[in-house]
Amino acid sequence: MTLDEAATGGLAALFGARALGCSLKEDRRSSRNTSSPPSPQRANSVKAIVTDNSSDARLLLKKVLEELEFEVQLAEDGGELLNTLTEETPDLCLIDWSLPGITGTELIRAMQRHPEWRDIPAILVADETLQDGIDSAIEAGASAHLAKPFEVERLKQVLDGIGL
Predict the structure, then answer these.
(1) For residue 7, how many other CB atoms are within 10 A of its CB?
(2) At 87, is the secondary structure helix, strand, or coil?
(3) Distance between CA atoms of 94 and 82, rounded to whole angstroms?
(4) 3-class DSSP assignment, residue 88
(5) Which residue from 24, 90, 123, 128 lies 20 to 30 Å from 139 (Cα-Cα)?
(6) Cis-peptide into 90, omega within 30 deg
(7) Which burial class, exposed, middle or buried, applies to 82 when counting CB atoms under 10 A from its CB (0-12, 13-18, 19+)?
(8) How far apart are CA 14 and CA 115, in angstroms?
(9) Best CA proximity match to 36, nearest among 155, 137, 147
(10) Terminal alpha carbon distance of the chain
């Protein structure tokens, strides 16, 4: 995949080319596939909800997770995630630290207080410069942290680390 193919809606600028599974050094005419081999197909569909106030971030995470055989729903903010959780229980939540009206940490705390949601793995997605926020999210019950900008391989490692 070339950067031009992947960089719709400013995704490359927001997350970097490596997060999109491509390299800035790739030639646009290259027919060589330099992406990672596909992950083994999941026996059962794994449902994930991606919550981020940035539509670019939501779409990027959705694209990557779908390529990893996840069924993905999107939520624009914490309220939308909580409403979705009342209707169905996903196998995974990816939660941005910076959401309108609520931090990712506060959202994770709310999930931990609810008996049906406390066992859902929650990955905090945040910039490394927010170390205090990351630490508080882990203390609140986040299963892991994924730094922005992220690389696909790092996301795979985080998912493997929590058993998905």
Answers:
(1) 17
(2) helix
(3) 13
(4) coil
(5) 90
(6) no
(7) middle
(8) 36
(9) 155
(10) 25
Count how many residues are written for the chain. Answer: 164
SS3 content of the chain, % helix, strand, coil (to 5): 40, 20, 40
- What is the 3-state secondary structure of 122-136? EEEEEECCCHHHHHH
CB atoms within 10 A of CB 24: 10
The whole-angstrom separation of Cα 71 and Cα 66 is 6
Question: Hey, what are 43's tokens?
Answer: 């026996």
- Residue by residue, DSSP assigns 15-48 as H-GGGGT--TT--TT-----SPPPPPPPSSPEEE
Residue 37's identity, in one-letter code, is P
Do 123 and 95 touch, CB atoms closer than 8 A? yes
Q: What is the pLDDT of residue 119?
A: 96
Contact 60, 20 (CB under 8 A): yes
What are 55's two structure tokens? 């539509």
Tell me which residues of the chain have a pLDDT lower than 50.
1-39, 42
